[in-house]
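README, section 4: Worked example with a bound small molecule

Sections 1 through 3 covered apo chains. Here we extend the same pipeline to holo records, where the ligand is supplied as SMILES alongside the sequence. The molecule in this example is flavin-adenine dinucleotide. Nothing else about the input changes; the structure line simply encodes the ligand pose together with the chain.
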Amino acid sequence: MRYSAFKLLTEGLRGHTGWKPVWRDPAPQAKYDYIIVGGGGHGLATAHYLSKVYKKSRIAVLEKGWIGGGNVGRNTTIIRSNYLLDGNEPLYEFSLKLWEGLEQDLNYNAMVSQRGILNLCHSDAQRDAYRRRGNAMRLNGADAELLDQGQVREIAPFLDFENARFPIKGGLLQRRGGTVRHDAVAWGYARSADNHGVDIIQNCEVTGFKIETGAIKGVKTSRGYIGAKKVGVAVAGSSSRVMAMAGLRLPIESHVLQAFVSEGLKPVIPGVITFGAGHFYISQSDKGGLVFGGDIDGYNSYAQRGNLPVVEDVLEGGMALMPMIGRARLLRMWGGLMDMSMDGSPFIDKTPIEGLYFNGGWCYGGFKATPASGYVFAHLLATDTPHKTATALRLDRFRTGAMIDEKGAGAQPNLH
Ligand SMILES: Cc1cc2nc3c(=O)[nH]c(=O)nc-3n(C[C@H](O)[C@H](O)[C@H](O)COP(=O)(O)OP(=O)(O)OC[C@H]3O[C@@H](n4cnc5c(N)ncnc54)[C@H](O)[C@@H]3O)c2cc1C
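The generated complex, written as structure tokens:
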């Protein structure tokens, strides 16, 4: 069923009796050509591009819970491509271009809103770093503008510009950045993949791999054994646990990241704003809630909820940036499992096990990468060669020394 204004009108006149379920609920088959483990944004996008662009069939997505229950439905919805390093920036810019055509591609309203992202700088050195980053972005075909304090004031007059410790000196603006309704992304990809014949199997946890003579043969699941020629794992915060079942140890730690939403307010924040002197970022949803977040919780955890000291830390960042936030009431908060890699950059690569592929290590930033991550993972699964935008995202980069340390912070997840 195609969605359109005409369809909406006719269904309205028929009392909305003709809408069909958005995806089927199939029982798992005995064997598939491709199994994607993890029905988050990345797994579903992989299935979509594998079937639609690479014309592959006999594909299943296995999800242990429900579609949208992981980070894809828990993030703060920010999309951008404001990265510095060559190993990263082409992938994120590719992603932003895919976001720009996503709703037409999926025939689904994902509320892609390019309302701009503004990274604030608070010192001359930070402004120099942003100038460098902006130039690197432009060299990779992205848009970037360096703003002085006056220009930032025009966009966001409510910020605390004269803060004694962190005066705002200017900012790096990417106008094509913005927000996307996160769970609509999961539903849109799921619907399209299903339309292209992919079996989306919920409540189906992968509990082990069948590996013979160094090659994958299938997966053990809570709904029985399923054979497969190729298996792609995209389980985000569960990466270490799932890959350990294949005997692989990853340079990834799992931490909780929390998100916060205030009561609904009149429009006040025009786009996304990030604080440059602490970890705090904020936007405003279409319903009026201020949506914000900050640091990860400092200890490893697989709980999808966080702790109070980080709440205090995030809100201190908010107060330092825009004191008026102290008048808003917090409506709700939640946590998600972050797959924090040791250089802050992701992996999209083959593993030493033939037919087993891995996608993970997205840290705070995997939502914006969803379309490109799915596309290039599908490319890898279909062709056995890395896509040109993902050649550096290798699992062996810590052994070879070819890290992609975007922030120069080293192996400290809390600093990425
Ligand atoms: C609070 C918060 C805010 C964030 N904000 C942003 C942001 O503004 N911008 C941005 O770019 N990124 C953001 N992120 C990061 C982003 O959400 C993630 O990097 C991204 O969603 C991860 O990919 P995914 O969607 O595939 O993950 P998920 O949706 O978590 O999908 C992984 C799936 O694998 C399933 N799974 C796990 N184990 C198994 C198993 N054994 N068998 C079967 N299935 C399994 C899980 O149930 C889950 O559904 C944020 C994350 C959080 C938590």
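What to look for in the output: The first strand starts at residue 31 and ends at 37. The longest helix spans residues 89-106.

Section 5 describes how to batch many such records.
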